[in-house]
Amino acid sequence: MTKNTSEVESNADFSMIRYAQVWEDADILLAALDIQPNDTCLAIASGGDNSLAMLSKSPNKVIALDLNPAQIYCLELKVAAFKCLSHDELLSLFGSQKHAERDKLYHQCREHISQDAQFFWDQKLADIKQYGIGGIGKFESYFRLFRTKILPLIHSEKMIKALFEERTADDRKIFFDNKWHSFRWRLLIRLFFSKFLMGKMGRDPAFFKYIKGSFANHVSQKIQYGMCQLNPRDNPYLQWILTGNHQSALPYALRKENYQAIKDNLDKLEWQLLSIEAFADKYPDQKINKFNLSNIFEYMSEENYHTLLKTIINISDSKARLAYWNMLAPRSAPQSLKDLIQPQTQLANTLQAQDKAIFYSKFNVEDIL
Questions:
Q1: Strand pairing class (288-292; 269-272)
Q2: Distance, CA of 122 to CA of 114 (rounded, Å)
Q3: Do 369 and 333 form a contact (C-beta atoms < 8 A)?
Q4: 15: exposed, middle or buried (Cβ count in 10 Å: 0-12, 13-18, 19+)
Q5: pTM of the entire structure?
Q6: Radius of gyration, CA atoms only, the chain
Q7: Pseudo-torsion of CA 212, 309, 198, 99, nearest 10°?
Q8: Which of 102, 151, 156, 242 is the most exposed place for a label (fewest CB within 10 A)?
């Protein structure tokens, strides 16, 4: 690899939308980062939602980076949607609720995106109309296959609707044990969420290189936590997986109470097609206060993870804060950097227990000293 090339850039395929929406909980992200008005923030763009969510805190700037042009186009279109559409129209274009004329909503936004993004999205107009812009990534297509082909073999629409009824934690556990957690559910979850199928149809196989243990068992356990310990009625991620839209809850960036604050701060957002390594090389004097690093570290070896941490330290302002997730690849600041990075373990654990994006095994919050 060259100096400014990341490991995942060398191995993964970035020719498509992988994530049309962000599958990480912005509520715990924002609680962890505690963004202040003078903060300059750096975010992994992905589907764009959490970069937009960060704007609601009125920071000095949010810089969104991604290696995949398609992910940048997702962010571009969502920025245009905030500029051009009402809140209800935004939800319709995203796919949170049904709408017969999403193509017209897209055309209202089209002139506010770059020519490259226009060309990209024009080819996907039929999918936009059918699924909304939040439903057409590879990851979302994988969940759609599960929802339309696998889930009907396990549970009826009536049972799925019942899952989202209001219950106490004790009653949710009884419902899960007696109604939901059938032998067929356990079997098909383990088959469908295997590393092989997820790598082939959901995520890039390169993203599983450093994962340890059974991914299917991990998913099964995390779904049980999300259905019992957390309230499915408050979980937009679980609702999208099982129903294809948002039934009774929205992710942070799409909630009505956050719409105007995000819209008012769109001029503070910029995006670039760069890795963090390349960004640090290009802007060595840029100092970052808050980092939304998604789960990028699980896509690289521990050695490269430690190297990237040192790069991040070099572009960090005093008392900068990092937030990032692990799935099954264990990544947290090593002892060799203990004089430079301080984990905020209690805060991270408290927030992780609230994480509605249920698939992750660990949430990390760390301060640069």
A1: unpaired
A2: 12
A3: no
A4: exposed
A5: 0.92
A6: 20
A7: 150
A8: 156
